[in-house]
Amino acid sequence: MHLSRYFLPVLRETPKEAEIISHQLMLRSGMIRQASAGIYSWLPLGFRVLKKIEQIVREEQDRSGAVEMLMPTIQSADLWRESGRYDAYGPEMLRFPDRHEREMLYGPTNEELITQIFRDSVKSYRDLPRNLYHIQWKFRDEVRPRFGVMRGREFLMKDAYSFDISADAARHAYNKMFVAYLRTFARMGLKSIPMAADTGPIGGDLSHEFIILAETGESRVFCHADTLEVPTPPADIDFDQDLQPIIGQWTRHYAATDEKHDPTRFEKDVPEPKRVTARGIEIGHIFFFGTKYSEPMGCRVQGPDGNLVAVQMGSYGIGVSRLAAAIIEASHDASGIVWPVPVAPFEVALVNLKAGDKDTDAACADLYGKLERAGVSVLYDDTEERAGAKFATMDLVGVPYQLIVGPKGLKSGEFEVKERKSGERASLGQDAVVKRLVADVSGQRTLA
Ligand code: ATP
Ligand code: MG
User: Could you tell me which of 421, 389, 393, 390 has the C-alpha nearest to residue 404?
Assistant: First the structure.
């Protein structure tokens, strides 16, 4: 991508309305713009990040055996009356009539809709287990939308729904999602901690929130330092095996958000030096809720003995748009964002220090072509800005590697590479520089 043809409206000043660093940096780097309270447009740079996050979520859902589909954003109130949630949900739900005065709503979640779909199509235990998911915009009329996309009103969520014949089988479905979540977040460079959670309006009795530690997190969290050291399940994990031992490793120590925190137990179970008290951001949430929806909505299948049984269900959410902000909270410095390669909008920033100069332009065009052909995504600054401004922009937008090309280097046949994260610089010849970048970038594309 040539910067001269791109749309990257960076801001040099920190916008006053942004309280936390991720919100400031997302505005400054031209990732998002507010449309109205809690509702954002994703500008080209932000959109690329959102798509990368979404794709990692998708790959790990697919790996675990979940099946992707797409449900609409607009739903009918009647469906929500079947589960009894239409009245229970409260003012967070955006409700409106269509032209025929039918009551509609913008979906805050999809348990009812997926239960209806499943009920109407599946009749036998032989079609179980299933896990269906989609990645779709949600609307919740939050009392206090804030911190940019961290707590928006319109936000992108991955929500999966599992269907099983028995509570034991549903437990396995829950464990699969648990493992998939650990892998998903690790691939984005995040250390997530599963914490026992309240089930809220969705209900049920088995639930974990996945939390990352961050000073700006909205909840206080308490956990054992050793949980931060548990290894992420590997990519080739067999999801059909008994996953309980892995879940056990992750849940054996105390971990709770303030909603569930029990100070006496915390002090008793966690020795002083291992006590972690911090703030956290909820990036995912998994629930097992049994027959909460299948019972009232009549989602039953024939069991092996011929009797009809209500299906055992769970639901599993990931805040896809919130993750863009959460990753920035976890990975930035004084100059701007530091994207981990797997979610970076571009992998290499090619900086032409003398755009308009025949030789420099030719060298850049050559490097650009070589990198792109090797599958590396490049943001090429071919503008006539001064060098200082170019570096400041690239540091701000956080592309993992900068490749700097100027007349001085050209003369000596050397090109400078700067790693955004460490600030380390190296000078290399043309072939070596391409080789090095391709190797470094592809080596980091999959962190877990
Ligand atoms: P919270 O406690 O933060 O309000 P929740 O428990 O109501 O979230 P869930 O129903 O569990 O949210 O939704 C699944 C995921 O969607 C959450 O873990 C979070 O990552 C994301 N999410 C929820 N609400 C918002 C929001 N207002 N803005 C952005 N992401 C959100
Ligand atoms: Mg939640």
Answer: 390
Three-state DSSP class for residue 46: helix
Antiparallel, parallel or unpaired: β 275-290 and 219-224: antiparallel
Q: How would residue 95 be classed by pLDDT, with cut points 50, 70 and 90? A: very high
From CA 299, how far away is CA 312, in angstroms rounded?
Answer: 9
Query: Separation of 159 CA from ligand 1 center, angstroms?
Result: 11
Q: Which of 253, 251, 257 is nearest to 278 (CA)?
A: 257
Q: How many CB atoms lie within 10 A of CB 400?
A: 22
pLDDT of residue 228: 96
Which residue out of 285, 286, 287, 321 has the highest number of ligand 1 atoms within 8 Å of its CB and is therefore the one to mutate? 285
Given ligand 1 and candidates 282, 283, 288, 320, which is best to mutate, with the most ligand atoms within 8 Å of its CB? Answer: 282
Contact 442, 392 (CB under 8 A): no
Pocket of ligand 1 (CB under 6 A): 109, 140, 142, 151-152, 155, 157, 200, 282-285, 317, 319, 321-322
Q: Determine phi and psi for 220, rounding to 5 degrees.
A: -85, 140
Which two structure tokens, joined as six digits, stand for 301?
């299948």
Global pTM value? 0.97
Phi, psi of 413 (to 5 degrees): 75, 25
Task: Could you list the beta-strand ranges (E) of 115-261.
Answer: 130-139, 154-164, 193-196, 206-213, 219-224, 255-257
* Among protein residues, the one whose CA lies closest to atom 11 of ligand 1: 285
- Report the percentage of the chain scoring pLDDT > 90: 96
357, with CB counted inside 10 A (0-12, 13-18, 19+), is: middle
With 0-12 CB in 10 A as exposed, 13-18 as middle and 19+ as buried, what is 143? exposed
Cα 350 to ligand 2 centroid, rounded to whole Å:
41
